[in-house]
Design a protein that fits this description.
Elements lengths: L1 H16 L18 H6 L12 E3 L2 H12 L3 H4 L2 E4 L3 E2 L17 E3 L4 E3 L9 E2 L2 E5 L2 E3 L2 E8 L5 E3 L2 E5 L2 E3 L2 E8 L4 E3 L2 E5 L2 E3 L2 E2 L2 E4 L2 E3 L2 E5 L3 E3 L2 E2 L2
Parallel strand pairs: 1-2, 2-4, 3-5, 4-8, 5-9, 6-10, 7-11, 8-12, 9-13, 10-14, 11-15, 12-16, 13-17, 13-18, 14-19, 15-20, 16-21, 17-22
């Protein structure tokens, strides 16, 4: 009996000395190890698939999406997302997607209101999404936008630089000051080969360069249909 107890105690001590991994519950089904952003901000509900998209249920999860995509998380950049609640942003926004790591997935705003989009001084492309490549974006409702995007080259409230993909059933209301930008649009700053449909903007704009209520500049087969601007 003493020999059995000693063996059990030794096994328990060995287990307690082994390093453990923090698992991000609810991110996907394969036991993804959480990174620092996930551990500090939480994780998504859902699987990131078309049938079970990742759920964006607050400001923290929306900012987490930006962090994961911008840091090169390919599986997040290409996943499906749905907004499940209204969100009011508490501070200046960091766009989702960069030139090196664009957003390529699907984002359904689900008609939920996203209020208070604003910018700090920066460079590159600014919008809810900074850079997209083939992304499918729909149902985005941006209210009380107040963008003074000093230093940015391309400015659009929903997408800065939109390469291919589509934007539909979305609107923007607020103000955009894009004096520093070469391309500035109420919804999209620069649209190349993209489709924008059934959208509207009531943005009051101040801008130099190429400017438009829907898109600042559209080229290479870009299609804009059933959209209007009042501003």
């Amino acid at each position: 009996m003493k020999r059995v107890l000693a063996t059990l105690l030794a096994a328990i001590m060995l287990l307690t000395m082994m390093p453990t991994a923090v698992i991000a519950e609810g991110v996907n089904g394969d036991g993804l190890v959480a990174n620092s952003a996930q551990m500090s901000e939480g994780t998504f509900n859902g699987l990131g698939t078309e049938e079970q998209p990742f759920e964006i249920d607050g400001e923290d999860s929306l900012r987490l999406l930006a962090t994961l995509v911008n840091e090169g998380g390919e599986k997040y950049a290409e996943a499906y997302y749905v907004l499940t609640s209204d969100i009011s942003l508490s501070e200046a926004w960091t766009p989702i997607g960069t030139a090196k790591h664009p957003f390529c997935g699907s984002f359904d705003g689900n008609g939920k209101k996203l209020a208070g989009l604003s910018a700090d001084e920066g460079k590159g492309c600014f919008g809810l999404f900074g850079e997209t490549d083939g992304a499918v974006i729909s149902g985005v409702a941006l209210d009380d936008v107040n963008i003074d995007a000093d230093g940015y080259d391309v400015i659009g409230a929903i997408v800065g630089n939109m390469q291919g993909g589509s934007l539909s059933e979305s609107y923007v209301a607020g103000t955009v000051n894009g004096d520093s930008g070469k391309y500035c649009g109420g919804l999209v700053g620069y649209a190349e080969g993209a489709e924008i449909a059934n959208c509207f903007s009531t943005v009051e704009m101040t801008a130099d360069g190429y400017v438009g209520g829907i898109a600042g500049f559209a080229c290479d087969g870009a299609v804009i249909e059933h959209c209007y601007n009042i501003g």
